[in-house]
Amino acid sequence: MAFQRAAHPAATRAYRDTEDEHPRLPGNMQRDSFAALVERVAPHLGVGRAAANTFVRLASMTRPSDWTSPDRSPVIYAAAGEVAKMLDRSQVRTRVITAELERAGLIERRTAANGSRSRAAGTGLYFGAAIARAAELMALDDQLKAERQQAIFLRGQRSTHKRHLTCALDRLFEISPHCPEAKAIRQEVEAWPSAERLHCMDLAALESHVDEADRLCRTVLDLLDKREEPNGETFENNRPYLQDTTEESLVSCNETVDKRSAGKPAQDRSHVVPPDGGPNCREKDEGAASGALKSEYIARLGPQRLFDLASPEMQLYLSGRAEPEYLRFHDFVWAAERRVPELGISPDAWNTAREVMGEDSAMLSILVLDARKSEPGHVIFKPGGYLRAMTERYRRGELYLIRSLIGLSERQRVGQGS
């Protein structure tokens, strides 16, 4: 980003506060929180780290009340040499830094003809210009925060796409070692930027890269589908899944839950952890691909059924991927990750859920949480805390996801008047 070095208008004489008008910080904002705000946004104002830190230190030399008072402004009257001593810098370096802050419109230097400063003469380092820009700086801070959150989300999605793509490629090479499309895609993946380099990409480039990663992943899954079943019937379409919307149908595919011993619900976790050992396992029965490719819940219920139980918001995302009956595990994880920030769930809560439950159960937990939040009269005030509670219950063997699906199905059936 090229920084503009010309003086900001707020540093010019026209922006100086008059004798009877002094800008003050808005709302409950105080001196120190404002100085911290300036330090956060400083790089986007063309202000280096040293100058930003100096602003914070200079602000600390003023009276806190001056930043919120309607009849005075914060100012440092000390001579330049004295300020340099307080900052433990040379006068030359201090002069360069204060000039940098002035060009950015964060301070204003008022000096007498001989360069002196004094209260009597009304000369010194004034902070009114920065205070007058408080709303602008707060908006910039909000924008930067949103961009950081979006970058975190995109890096997380790239990680998911790469993980699923790598597993799909490994499986594809097992059953079709000489597939030319797979070889070309693997070479392309090897040229992808590293996880570290993703932090240096701007949002537009990062979003474009993530979209391409998703496209490649879906391409490999298509290739894998065509080779999984010799008769041409793909793995995704050959799974048993339920056709009706009754509670009994949901129970039928969770038979082990109903047959568990009374008083020992935590001992039978087959309804929580897939029988092949969970979605994070390596390859298992009959050469099945890693859990990153399949979902026990989709295999049991079918993608159409899970789609029907999802919230309208998640359904909107899923509808843009494929017809419900052709949705894959990758699509459901992709949609769940889209809903995570929209629900106000932190990346940490989502990552913890995936680590503890595995991607399969974590995805379904988001689907259930999201669907319940959309129910009339049902309010989940803190979805992040709700997900953490689900994660902890899973850790204790007390999370019954199929039971939650049964509840969603029943409430949906009652709501439809069937």
UniProtKB/TrEMBL annotation:
The gene is repC. It comes from Paracoccus maritimus. Residues 310-409 form the Plasmid replication protein C C-terminal domain. This is Replication initiation protein RepC. It holds the Pfam family RP-C_C. Residues 14-24, 257-271 have a biased composition (Basic and acidic residues). Residues 10-169 form the Plasmid replication protein C N-terminal domain. Residues 1-28, 257-288 are annotated as: Disordered.
